[in-house]
Amino acid sequence: MTRLNVVLLLAVLASAIYLVHTQYESRRLFTELDRAVAEARRLETEHQRLQVEKRAQATPLRVEKIARAQLNMRTATPAITQYVSDPQGVATATAAAAAAAASQPAGVQP
User: Fold this and answer.
1) Quick check: 104 and 110 in contact, CB under 8 A?
2) What is the spatial distance between Cα 12 and Cα 8, in angstroms, rounded to a whole number?
3) pTM of the entire structure?
4) How many angstroms separate the Cα of 24 from the Cα of each of 10, 48, 105?
5) In sequence order, what DSSP letters do the residues of the chain get, joined into one string?
């Protein structure tokens, strides 16, 4: 009978130690989860702030002002526009269009 009592006592002690360890791990994991949620919330707030700042920096008026001041850019006018022609490219495009039209059966439109 005493052996049974000793075995049961050891089983109860092992169970108690396991319970304490499990509760400790549970609390540690809950604390870690809470920190992670707080960090995610902080990062989301910072992301939203950065998005607002990005939109403010990319306004067309600001971009044009910086382009004029720092890059010495100016708006395109017909006086400064240069047109480049590519006669060979036009001939190639025309030939490709004619070949595509010839390969279509009669009465079918692309």
Assistant:
1) yes
2) 6
3) 0.49
4) 21, 36, 79
5) -HHHHHHHHHHHHHHHHHHHHHHHHHHHHHHHHHHHHHHHHHHHHHHHHHHHHHHHHT-HHHHHHHHHHTS------TTT------HHHHHHHHHHHHHHHHHSPTT---
Q: Are 68 and 74 in contact (CB under 8 A)?
A: yes
Which pLDDT score, from 0 to 100, does residue 93 have?
Answer: 67
Beta-carbon count within 10 A of 67 CB: 13
pLDDT at 34: 98
CB neighbours of residue 21 within 10 Å: 10
